[in-house]
Amino acid sequence: MFKADQPIKSYKEDILGRRPFAQSLGNAILSYKEKDSIVIGLFGAWGSGKTSIINMALERIDLVSKNKTDDERPIIVRFNPWNYSDQNQLVTQFFRQLSVVLRRPDYASDAKKAGERLETYAKFFEPFALIPTVGPIASIFSKVFKDIGSVTKSWGDLKSNDLNAIRAELNELLGKQPHKIIVVIDDIDRLNNTEIRQIFQLIKSLGDFQNTIYLLAFDKNVVINALKKVQEGSGIEYLEKVVQIPFEIPLISKQEVEYLLLSQLDEIIKDIPENKWDQTYWVNIYHSGLKYFFRNIRDVTRYINSLRFSFEMVKGEVNAIDFLAITGIQVFIPEVYYGIRDNKDIFSGVYSDYGRSDVTKEQDKKRCDEIINRVNEPPQELLKDFLERLFPKLKSIYSNTNYGYDWLDSWRRDCRICSPDIFDIFFRLSLPKGEISQREIETILSLGNNPDSFAEALLKINEDGRIIRFLERLEDYTRSDIPEENIEPIITVLMDIGDLFPEGNSGFFGTDTPMRLLRLFYQLSHRFDSHERRFNIFKRAMEKTTRSLYTIVDEVSVQGQQHGKYGSKETPEPEEKLTVNSEQLEELEKLACNKIESWADDGRLAKHRHLPSILFMWKDWEKRDKINNFVNNMIKNDDGLIDFITSFLSKSTSNGMADYVGRIPWRIHLKSVEEFVDLKEVEPRIRKIFSSSDFDQFDDRKKLAIRTFLDTIDGKIKERF
Questions:
Q1: Which of helix, strand or coil describes residue 141?
Q2: How far apart are CA 683 and CA 640, in angstroms?
Q3: Are the CB atoms for 201 and 134 separated by under 8 Å?
Q4: Residues 592/556, Cβ–Cβ less than 8 Å
């Protein structure tokens, strides 16, 4: 799934066309036939692919050498100076590693002898804190002999206890053996300044052996600056004395980097449906800022690895284009990323002038400027333009471009990062508790043509407390995404089980469940232009409904209000906004009355949580005597009377000037109760119940209703409407 930030190992992995250059490098090494040591430098900036080129060059050498005899094949030694922590180890371990390689059984006898002498050679440098600087070998020996004295006595087979003699013997052995020894030292530019100097001193002085070819890879500018700081004279002049053959890696073009990036992005987003990918928006996001982050292969690798890990966690829940953009910000300018994450109020939603002054707007602008100014790259104007495309609210802060609240539904539907409902998912990489996933929504909607399965799915998320969030998100799909053939089944199911859903929030800043259902019915039914088509949908839905009553009554009531009925308005809505015509409305009202009577007859109406609302609508549609009969039958015993009074218990919210939250006092509106019963008749009965021993047997809600009813009558609670 992930690609390590590792170089390619074979030309088969080459997607940037570096193979010809690498092969030329390999051929150049193979063509060197002289015995004198030679140093080849491979120059390239960090992330330019030096190691990949070395791997392909060595692959070329290996391929060509397969036709040679064992004795003629080159010996390759890859020395990694990063493995050694101090200067003394670096020199000692270089020679010991070279010694181990040369002593392989399949190499020529002189090579193996040279390996044995290299082990002895390495011992000379174990006691030193510093590698000898460039100078006469004899002076080095005098220091060695002085410091270690008798150590050399154990080297009985040496021609002389002299470093020059050891080195001369090594050269003779290495010159006689048939193998070319290719020593590869990579990532020299990652060492500290002193270690960089040591590597070059090692090659120039101590490791200048016959039949040895050094291939050094590093950033030329880094090495020159390092050498300049730790020794006298020019760094470039010193480097030129050591490196005889320089190879400059061809620069990776922006087009090559872009090709690499986009080809890997294609793999990540290949499963995204076309309708979830806005190509115009992607082009704008990419060219306005995202592409600025990618300068080399390592940039691409870092980004792609981060994206592969995180995108899988939120795929289908967030806008893919926005996620590509915010991931780029996270990887390359994390200071800005955290600023965005921690300032949701600035970056998400729309800018409202309500309650905001010019001073507040200027403060918001300063907060944005502070976040943008955290980095120097990319340029601030470019970054601001990039962020304004991701977060349109910024355009309102920096200019007079404003986005209305109608944009919020669109952004939420598209799972944009600028949506307050979606914003957190981009940073949490998971859904908040109680949230319903995009995939789950789309899966449930795919069942829309199967009423039983659709209803089952809704009842399941109703049980786990997420139905309200589903209904809220469903509005994002009503305008076009739901197929027309699924509209009637969906309306039918919602009408049938709507009463089973929790009420939800209401008030100034919330929409309760009945109101949300009404909006859904309107949006879905008005996908059809014909009154006849809409009427038939609602008629058939009402006829099939068995589990809900208030959802039906509420819908018919709202349709009547569109016509200016029930005292709601003096004039009806324009023809195009009417769900059904007047004749069709009367038929729906009759159907609603039949449903109410059915519920009244079987006892379910008396227990309905929306009993007062249903009674008021029934009163507008039906003869009064039927309603009176129902109420009288209900209140003829004390239990029924208390149930009736309790159904009128409701909350009202009020705020004091110093309150941060509203108070929620309980109330019973006596005038509403009086529409159906005579207060003079029921009041004594309720007082008697209150003072009796039976009062304590009622549940808390019924006790509250009795007290509230009596307190209202006694004037202790002021009625407000």
A1: helix
A2: 14
A3: yes
A4: yes
- The pLDDT score that the predictor gives to residue 578 is 92
**Contact predicate 226/196, CB 8 Å:** yes
Read off the pLDDT band of 202 (50, 70, 90). Answer: confident
Distances (CA, A) of 284 to 291, 307, 383, 417: 11, 20, 13, 16
Amino acid, res. 290: L
E strand map for 219-278: 245-248
- How many angstroms separate the Cα of 84 from the Cα of each of 79, 100, 170, 630? 10, 17, 24, 94
| Average pLDDT of span 411-423 | 93
Structure tokens at 55: 């791997």
| Band of residue 87 on the pLDDT scale cut at 50, 70, 90 | low
Confidence category of residue 157, pLDDT binned at 50, 70, 90 = very low
Phi then psi dihedrals of residue 490, to 5 deg: -65, -45
Report the alpha-carbon distance of residue 180 to residue 704 in Å, rounded: 99
CATH architecture classification, 39-248: 3-Layer(aba) Sandwich (3.40)
Separation of alpha carbons 144 and 132, rounded Å? 10
At 381, the amino acid letter reads E
**Among 390, 350, 342, which residue's Cα sits nearest to residue 370?**
342
Cβ–Cβ under 8 Å, residues 566 and 549: no
Of 559 and 567, more confident: 559
Break the chain into its structural domains and give their ranges: 39-248, 258-428, 637-721
pLDDT at res. 6: 62
* pTM of the complete model: 0.56
Residue type, 53: I
How far apart CA 94 and CA 201 sit, in angstroms, is: 13
